[in-house]
Amino acid sequence: MGVEWWMFDLPPISGQLRAVFYAGLLLLCILDRPSPLHAALIIGRTERTFYTPVPFMRALGISWVRPTFLWIVTALTVVVWIAAITGLCQPFAAVLTFLGFAFLHAVNAGALGSNHSTHLALYVLFALCFCVSNDAWSFDHYLSSHTRWPFPLTAAPIFESGFAPKLILVFMAYCMFAAGTTKIRNGGWTWLNGKALRFYIKESAEYARWPAFASALVTRRALCTLLSCFTVVIELAAILVLWKSSYRLPFVLAWTCLHMGILLVMMPAYWVQMWCYILVLDWGGITKLISGHKSEVIYPMASSLPLAAGPSAIFVSLLGFSICLALLVILVRQCECWPFTTVPMYSNAVSPDLERRPMLEELQLRAERAKAGDVSAWKRPWVTPEAWEDIWIIPRRDAQPISLHKLLEKRPNIKFVRWSQFAKVVREVTITDLIAKPKGRAEFDALAPEYPATRFLRQVEAVVKRALPEWNEYKRLEMVCHADPEWIVIGRIDL
Description:
Helices cover 51% and strands 6% of the residues. It contains 20 helices and 4 strands. Strand 3 and strand 4 form a beta hairpin. The longest helix has 25 residues, at 163-187.
């Protein structure tokens, strides 16, 4: 039963659809930023002090990758990607494309904070390693028909089955379902009242691609409530596509509408994720629905093949169930461990103007809970006003502190770090610092030993002196944490 669900429930992906998808994804990853193919540029603009290699990279002993090496990996990845588009040396071209993309994706993850816009593409490229085309849309077919060319490898039935599209559908349903559950888990059911969506749209106004529409949403709370409910409903209901094929088209259209709405009024752009949806649509059925009769479509799916459920089919079915179990564990534990994500962005429910900031005596207890995995103990900021922590630089002539990131982001030629990664690193250092200090001693004490916040600021000092020619116009750096009713200093160094 399980083997049939994984192998024969969906028809295999045709060579034509496979080629079109690979070509379109390559084009989008070149044009859209940030994508793994821009890893060299992203790392080249990121200070190593603020780079946090993912556990997978640390396990390989890699803490930093030079941009020059990333350019080489990117070039090689594009070469094998083109081979995958043309259907050459299958399935090895697909495997090498996935490995190159995965390496660049992992490198990027240490510099982008929390960015899940290309996670689905990574999953899809993995699934396509179990798919080959042996038709007119592959060079392998042509070469094997006229020579002794050994490709494509189709000895195992998995390459001619519906396993790849089924696995892709599982990943798509997971990404949407995880986004919905994270909103409810982090923000509670109050996320549905529209206040969170209204707040995030308002804070993202400068990035809105349709400012008039964004302004209209901000002034219409009822509409924000409606859109919030729509978002969570279609995200939580996403798993239905795994059991009823007729749901695929309506859900894909709903997901696309959601992504387009985000595109118009906020900063994230999900072009890459939307493109992945073409692999699970019934293009023959869509053509029939539009024209009223069957016709040859531009992206047909290959016909289902009467394959026997042999050892390889049983193996990949077990692999599929293992992936499902891993995704479930990641979702329950709310782990953000590359290559997995629970899609946590914009999941806070209360705006900073309405929430109660932690009392001073609460900070260390909250930090301990956050370190233990309680995501609600110390929220993650998605926009600047949500941050409970920051690094300030204090001018010599004016006592008014300046946010270090705000100061440096206005200088485009300075090498520093994206705000999302800056906020992630400062949050982690703050939590570590509060845990390391004695109970009731959260604030900076010049007579006490140096704790993590102050030690980290000594690394940041070198960054400041490289980035700011006029650094001697500032007297000190402070790491601060927002406790009710005001900011407190937890680390400090003189420049």
